[in-house]
Structure formats: structure tokens, C-alpha cells
Amino acid sequence: MDKVKVGVIGLGMGQFHLRSYEACPDASVIALCDIDGAKLSRLLRERPGVEGFTDYREMLAMEELQAVSVALPNFLHAPVTLAALEAGKHVLCEKPMAMNAAEALEMKAAAERLGRVLMIHFNMRYMATAATLKPIVDAAVLGEVYHVTTTYTRRDGYPPTSWFGRKDMSGGGPLIDMGVHRIDLALWLLGRPRPVSAFGAVYDLLARKKLKGVEFDCEDFATAMVRFENGCTLYVATSWDGHEKDGGGLTMSIRGTEGAVFEQEGRLILCTEEHGVPTARTLEQVEPGETPQDHFVSCIREGRQPDPCAEDGVTLMKVLDAIYESARTRSEVRIE
Ligand SMILES: NC(=O)c1ccc[n+]([C@@H]2O[C@H](COP(=O)([O-])OP(=O)(O)OC[C@H]3O[C@@H](n4cnc5c(N)ncnc54)[C@H](O)[C@@H]3O)[C@@H](O)[C@H]2O)c1
Q1: Which of 8, 17, 35 best tests ligand 1's pocket when mutated (most atoms within 8 Å of CB)?
Q2: What pLDDT, on a 0 to 100 scale, did the predictor assign at position 201?
Q3: Residue 161 pLDDT
Q4: Does pTM top 0.70 for this prediction?
């Protein structure tokens, strides 16, 4: 079978997609696009034969182009993904899928109508911690899981590019930027329980104190509790700034009736009971078998539904919409 001919639109995080496609034996990168001509030229110089564009519409007009990664500021995910799907391309769209659930639903419907693969780049599912935890949760080693706690925090870690802090371009702060990864990971590990409500709060107290003369109208910290139909709950806290110990980082704990697992400083500790005696052991981590780009390309070749799929992206946007709405109204918000 011929290699899948791909392009990348947006060459910040998009450079990660680019390198991953270049390492994929079944993909061939034929086009790159960025409005920053200097960045584009630098990347093209090292890649003879690859075509460069500063207008994504011109790139999408390439007949031989089969698939694109959309790695643009969040407000461009929906319009550019829709344009790519309409041009007949398969799309790997960066997280968050869109600015809100309404946009995400439109993208999902377009992919279904046009029969194209639409995958969302929740790449934390393709990391060693996820690859290690998934079989443990699936095999019910933890028994019935009833609560997940997860944090993704930074100390003075505002993103370097200014659009992130503008709600009209990003949709929000660390919740939609970083929290989205952790909520997705928890939902995926738990086998996609249906979220039914959320209670959340967001704060911008440190940003208001620190960021003078900068356009910034997002939160710097968000916290929320999400309730699932099966009774399980999820607590998430995420920040771009805060007086975080050791600069912040990633944590997760998954509590079940037979055991619990704790992610701390990159280690995974499984706590269970053996013959009534509490035990704790550090898990040897499993390397993931493929990258998100490998998976996207193989779904195109085999006509398979990708993982994470558009439906996963829509669910996440519904959860985020509910958390932001809950923060605004100071009440628990139902998720339909
Ligand atoms: N999955 C992850 O781990 C991860 C990590 C970082 C960023 N991201 C996501 O990737 C996306 C991009 O983030 P980033 O950090 O790369 O941002 P960035 O600002 O560093 O890069 C965006 C790039 O897009 C280009 N661009 C802007 N408008 C364009 C247009 N109309 N046409 C073509 N190019 C255009 C910019 O010139 C820039 O090079 C965001 O949605 C972000 O949430 C995901």
C-alpha cells in the first residue's frame, strides 16, 4: 500500500507532528503551512521536495494531499478542520478539539458526512503512564473505580505565545489547555463513563497581580469535580501559575474497591491488599507501541475509527463548557 501523503498546518506544536510523521514508515510529509514565512522557510530548507504554504486554503487545494495535522491556535481548530474535511482530507486536530461543544459537534458531523477520519491529539494516552495503567484498570485490578484525582500544575508557567491568554483565541486558560489532557486521560482509563454534571471554579488572582500591560482574560487556576452516570467522580486542578511545590507537575490517583494507583513524579505506585496486609509497589512502566501519528495513519489506511475519536473530543468540550458555566454561575451544571 502507498504511503499516506500528509501535511502539517501550524508549526509550533506542529513540528512535533512533523517529526513523528517523518519517523512513521507509512507516512510521507509533502506539505507544510505556517503564516510565519521565516519559520516555514527554515523547516523547508532541511526538507527538499516538501511544498510550503502561508495560506492553508492553497495547501488544502493540493489534490495528492490526503491528510493534515491542524496544530493552530484553538480558535482556528474548527474552521480549518472543517475546510480540510470539505477538501476531502483526513484530520488529526490538536487538543482542545474546539472552542466549545457546539463547534466540536459540527466538526464531528462533517467528518461523518464526508467519511473522513477525524482524530483528536490527546497524546497523553500515548505515553508510558497511560500504557501502563490502561491494562491494570481494564483487568479490574483496582476493582470498581469510584474516584479519580488529577492535577496538572505549573508555577509561573504562562504559555510563551500571547494568544493562549486571550479567551477569544484560546477559549480559556489552563483548564482548556492542560486540564483537558488529564480529564481525557481519566475518561479513557475508566472506559468512557458518561459525565452527567460538573461543579467548578476558576481564578485569575495571580495573573491580575503579575501580568501588567499584557492582554490576558483567562483563568490562571481552575478546579472542578465531575460526576459520572455510574456514580464515579473526578477531581481536577490545573494551573499556569500558583505557589506550587517544586514548580508543579502531573499527579493522578485512581481509587477502586480492590486497590488504588498513584502517579507521583513520574512513578506509578499500586496499593492493594494481600491476605489482608496493605501492600505498595512501584510499577514497571510499559512503553507505548505507537505514536498518535502512527495510529492516525494506520486508521486512514485501514478505514478504522481513531482513538481518540471525534466523539471523545466532543465529550471533553461538553465537560469543559459545563465547568466554565459552573464557575460563572457558581452552581452545579448538568451535562447532556
Ligand atoms: N498535545 C500537546 O501536548 C500540545 C502541546 C502544545 C500545544 N498544543 C496545541 O497545539 C496548538 C498550537 O499550539 P502551539 O503551542 O504550537 O502554539 P504556537 O503559537 O507556538 O504555534 C502556532 C503556530 O501556528 C501558526 N499560525 C497561526 N495562525 C495561522 C494560520 N492562520 N495559518 C497557518 N499558520 C498559522 C503560528 O505562526 C505558529 O507558528 C494549540 O491548540 C495547543 O493547545 C498541544
Answers
A1: 35
A2: 98
A3: 85
A4: yes
Ligand 1 pocket mutation pick from 36, 72, 162, 238 by most atoms within 8 angstroms of CB: 72
Amino acid at 65: L
Ligand 1 environment, Cβ below 6 A = 9-13, 33-36, 39, 56, 71-74, 76, 94-95, 121, 123, 161, 177
156 in the same domain as 100 = no
Integer Cα distance of 200 and 236 in angstroms: 9
Element (H, E) at 45: helix 37-45
Q: What is the pLDDT of residue 312?
A: 98
Number of folded domains that form the chain: 2
> Which cell numbers hold the place of 7?
501535511
Residue 303, all three cell numbers: 478505514
Extract the residue ranges of the chain whose pLDDT is less than 70.
none
CATH code, domain carrying 78? 3.40.50.720
pLDDT score at 313: 98
